[in-house]
Each structure stands twice: as C-alpha cells, then as structure tokens.
Amino acid sequence: MENYTFPDGFLWGGAIAANQAEGAYQTDNKGLTIVDLLPTGDSRRAIMKGDVPSLQPLAGEFYPAHEAIDFYHNYKEDIALFAEMGFKALRVSIAWARIFPTGEDATPNEAGLAFYDSLFDELRKHDIEPVVTLAHFDVPVHLIDTYGSWRSRKLVSLFERYAKTVFERYQDKVTYWMTFNEINMLLHLPFLGAGLVFAEGDNQKQIQYQAAHHQLVASALAVKACHEIIPDAQIGCMLAAGMFYPYSCNPEDVKLAMDKDRESFFFIDVQARGEYPGYANRFFNENNIHIAMEPGDLEILKNHTVDYIGFSYYSSRTISSDKEVMKKATSGNVFGSAVNPYVSKSEWGWTIDPVGFRITANQLYDRYQKPLFVVENGLGAIDQVTEAGTIEDDYRIAYLRRHIAEMAEAIEDGVPIIGYTSWGPIDIVSASSGEMKKRYGYIYVDRDNEGNGTGKRIKKKSFDWYKRVISSNGQQLD
C-alpha cells in the first residue's frame, strides 16, 4: 500500500500506567502496591519473578515508582501536551490501592476516587477518550501479605467490588475499559503480573495457573458488571502479544512455536471464547495441575466474554528445539528469543519486526473474530538532549512509521482495529528495568535513573511528527 487508510473515528493516542507515571505513592491515603516494592538494580528481575525479600520498601534501595514522573501532580500540563498532539484517546490505569488502600477497606478512599474524576474530566475537556485498565501490574500489598494475592479465591470478590465501585463512579466518563494488563505476564513475571510470592518447595506452576483461574473469573465478573452498569461501554482483555516464529522448518520447531504461542493464547481463549481450551486441559493433566473451581465458574466464563482484544506489540520471538541455538537467545525481552538474522534489535535487545505486527494482528483476528485495540507499541531508546535543547529521535520516528504502516496493512487485510495508543507518549519509568534512560516518549522528562532532575518536559522531534500522523488520520507518515 502507498495510501494508508484508517477508519473514521480511529482512536489515535498514547498509553501510560499509574504504577509507572503517577508517583505520589503514599499521597491521599494510597496503599502500597506491587511496583512500590520493585527497586532498580540487579535484584529487580528476581523480585518480579516472585523472590520477594520484603513486603515493605527497604532502606538503602531506590524505588523509582515512588516518585516516577509525578503525573499525579502534573497531569493537567501533560494532558495539555497530549491535546496539542491531537490525541483522540489516552490509555491509563486506575491504581487499585488508591481506591481501596488495603484492598478490603470498608469504604472506598474518596481522595483516590476524586483524583480520577479530575483526571477523566481533564481528558474530556480536551476531547480525549479515556481508555482505562482496571489492573495494570497492580495488587494492594495488604492482599499479598494477608491472602497470598491471586492464589486466594478471596481476591475474586474483592476485585469485583473494586470494579463495580469504579464503574459506578465513572460510568458517565469512561466508555472503554480493560480488565488485566498483559494477563499472560503472570506466567513469566508472576510477582509483577499477579503479586505472587514463592517460598522454597512451592509448586509454582500449580500456584500460577490457580491464580490465573481466579483472575479469569474476576475478569469475567468485571465484564458482567460493566455491561450491567454501563450498557454502552466496551470492555476488553489485554495480551502481551508477538508471535513465535519457528527457527527452522523442522516440524519440532514449528510445534514448539505453536506451543509457546498457546501459553499466551490460553488466557485470551478463555476471556474471548469463554472456555478452557483442550490443549490447556491436556497440559494440566500431564503436569499434575489441578484447578480448584467453584460451582458456576465455567458458566461465568462462558457467559461474560470480552468485547474486544487489547494487545501490546513490541517484537516477535523466535524459538528452536535445538538447545545449542537457544544458548544464544537474547534475554532483552521477558519472553526470550533465539537470534533472528532477518530482523534488527533495539538497544535493549528487543527484536524490531514491523511485519510481525501485521502478522500478529491477523493472527489474533483470525483466532477470535473480535475487534482489536493496539494499546501498546513503541521503542525504548536512549535519547540525547542537544546543546540547543532538542531531542532528534529519528530512530523512534522510523520505528513507529514502519509499525503504523504495517497496522494499516492489517486493516486493509480486513482486521478491525479500534485505535492505536503508543506506549509511553511521555517518558516514564520502565516496567522491566526500572530505568528512566529507556525512553519511549514524544515528550522528554528531565529525570535520570537515580531520580535526579528537574522533571521538566521537553518536546522531541517525534512530537510534531506524531501530531501530523494524527491530524492526517495516518495519511502522512513521512
């Protein structure tokens, strides 16, 4: 294609998360949450996987999310910059512990509710549609300490109560909702994804899939509540997407790639199709995993499927059955990947594969036949401020241009896509590394990995480029 066509009303914008942007981690009665226990440094990845030394912040550690970019106090100025770019939508998350600081408080925290009232009002003032995630790597620490987080059935009812509270409060302000961010991350970074902490001797797979069942039931109950409280709303799920390529045409490689894709599709199969797939049941049987269910769970899953599939796409992955090949796998991405000689890599080792974006979108629509919403896509890179005070991020423009072009190709293929909210339209704390130098934004934030800096916002070259993309509805990508 040369002339790219996007639907009228396509939701161009950006995406951030409370835990990576807001800061103000104890302001207005907010409780501790997962990210408040994630320091920078060598221990971060182990903690995200469930080896958690403390359920309180430790002296001597730097926790970047405690202050982040202080979006909590700067959201009006930041939203004005998004509006200047012409945003039609901004994806945000609600911090569960701002609404229920412990997760099981007798009444919701009015100061937290009022903050999101003001945030959504500010977006509406600029004709920006809020796209709201209920749980973006977010569980109140009290629930982790008291119940073991999502390994406990108790969290299903507590999450349902939280969801109903915000649906009722914001029913006139929010149309687009999502339940769990990158729900499949539970299998890869279980503390980050679901607040799971493991002790020596734990059957981790059993715990993870039991927690997954609880999240899936909670997601379905949130869908049910959303449809009842806000009949005109759309509520979706959210997948960390990016297909696995077989390293070769060896059938063992092809089968392994299918199996790795299914690890992630499992969650969306349940949320979009309403039932546990046969391959998952076989996996449970062969791995001695026993999912405890309550009467009615399967009916809840079946009757309350999502309206659309939200997904992030940053890179494709490649898998081989040859252990020698996998010894050279990149560890840049959480999922890991054999080296693919046909694609380039980012500074953090993530493959850059725009065509894979189109393939993934087609794969998801072929599988689910539901509208898609691209809610994360972007390039994390080191940006340099010139002596003139500018940031010439042509590499980011090149990445986004190629991915948006392939998204247009997917739409031409017949894939219905609601919108595109690129990740980190303003620099925020990296979820994977805790770094600020891994920047995604069109807007630079003067803050470094140690928390130093003025917090000043500076428009990058990509700011004006994305403004032209939006104003032309994707016609102008140069």
Q: Briefly, what is this?
A:
The chain is of the alpha/beta class and 478 residues long. It has helices spanning 18-21, 44-48, 71-85, 96-99, 110-125, 141-147, 154-170, 190-194, 204-229, 251-273, 278-286, 297-303, 323-326, 354-368, 394-412, 461-471; strands at 11-15, 89-93, 129-135, 176-180, 234-241, 244-246, 308-313, 317-319, 344-345, 351-352, 372-376, 417-423, 443-445, 457-459.
How does this structure look, described?
The structure is a single chain. The chain is globular. The chain has helices spanning 18-21, 44-48, 71-85, 96-99, 110-125, 141-147, 154-170, 190-194, 204-229, 251-273, 278-286, 297-303, 323-326, 354-368, 394-412, 461-471, and strands at 11-15, 89-93, 129-135, 176-180, 234-241, 244-246, 308-313, 317-319, 344-345, 351-352, 372-376, 417-423, 443-445, 457-459. Helix 7 packs parallel to helix 9 (204-229), helix 9 crosses helix 12 and helix 14 (354-368) packs parallel to helix 15 (394-412). It is built from 16 helices and 14 strands. Strand 9 and strand 10 (351-352) form a beta hairpin. By secondary structure, it is of the alpha/beta class. The strands form four sheets. Strands 1-2-3-4-5-7-11-12 form an eight-stranded parallel beta barrel, surrounded by four helices. The chain has a single domain (11-471), classed as Glycosidases (TIM Barrel, Alpha-Beta Barrel). The longest helix has 26 residues, at 204-229.
